[in-house]
Amino acid sequence: MAPVDAATFRSRVPLSSYDDYFHLINQLANGDIDHHQPLLSADPLLCFFYSSGTSTMKPKLIPYFDSALSRAASYNAHQGSAAIFRKLVPPRPEVNKVLWFLYADEVTTTRGGFKVMAASTYPLQGNKSRSNWSQTISCISPREVVFGTNIEHQMYCHLLCALRNFDIIDGIRAAYAAGLIRAFSMLESKWEKLCDDLESGFPSLEIADAAMRESVVEFLGGPQVDLSRRIREICAESNWGGILSKLWPNARYVKAVTTGSMKQYYPKLKHYAGDVMILGGDYFASECCLGINLDIQQPPESTRFVMLPTAAYFEFLPFDLNERSVAGEETVDFSGVKVGEDVRGCCDNLQRIVSIPIG
């Protein structure tokens, strides 16, 4: 088969939206699949990702196919992101753990038996093996906490474990700024209970997940009376500005997505972080990886992303921010985008779906 140039591709495949494929996606989710006439992709369907809804405020169900090209693009993007992070925050052998608010058990199943999860959960949920867990070995919490069944209890145990080994915490991270604010609000409201648990060496009786509870008991290593006293003295001052460096004095960074709808949480996050630097995230969508943040120290209003043209086939439509609608029908490629112009991106992952607003 001869290669297809961009102009031919655009003429043969019309622009579309997620709604145009909604019935086909539901058909896939229900297991109504004819392997002789595949829907949307010739590659095998592995699972579904649910979008965060940060772009459209309405989560979507995104089929994830076993595509070698998709895996390669995702791998390259993550490797590039990791290299930028390591250059800014080089590893330290003695202080090498992260208070990482990971939750890997938010998984549902479609009528057709396919798993539905956040894209960030897939590396862990794909196979709950030790080899997969090694990808996040820097997380301070035992894996039983990450694979727990109650987010509130998991969040509590993440905090408890990080307070137990406060001196080796190098950073604090979550997928989104909202998740960090929620966790720090829990710290602010439940610090006395956390101190009680450290003092007794046992997590709260509210933690009903037996595997998670047992792993945390082992992690605490018995009563921590002196440590509990230290944390009580800090939190009893009720001064939550810069609390992170007070509780975790060796922490160098706080990392989460702070752009888009997460921008509203940045001031509060800055309040908690104090002098600890806040690092932003990259531009990953459920559809594909869009761009890398080369300067992750920038605040959200100054963040710029370098888009990855090999992650998907991208086109752009002019977009009217005042009308919140597309202002034209002719697409342009990267070279046709003007500086300062508001555009809506179209990525070729499911037949030129128009789904990603880019300004």
TrEMBL record:
Q: PANTHER family of this UniProt entry?
A: GH3 DOMAIN-CONTAINING PROTEIN, INDOLE-3-ACETIC ACID-AMIDO SYNTHETASE GH3.6-RELATED
Q: The organism sits in which domain of life?
A: Eukaryota
UniProt cross-references to InterPro entries, sorted A to Z: GH3 (IPR004993)
Can you name a GO cellular component term? cytoplasm
Q: Name one GO molecular function term.
A: acid-amino acid ligase activity
Name of the protein: INDOLE-3-ACETIC ACID-AMIDO SYNTHETASE GH3.6-RELATED
Q: Which residues form a coiled coil?
A: none
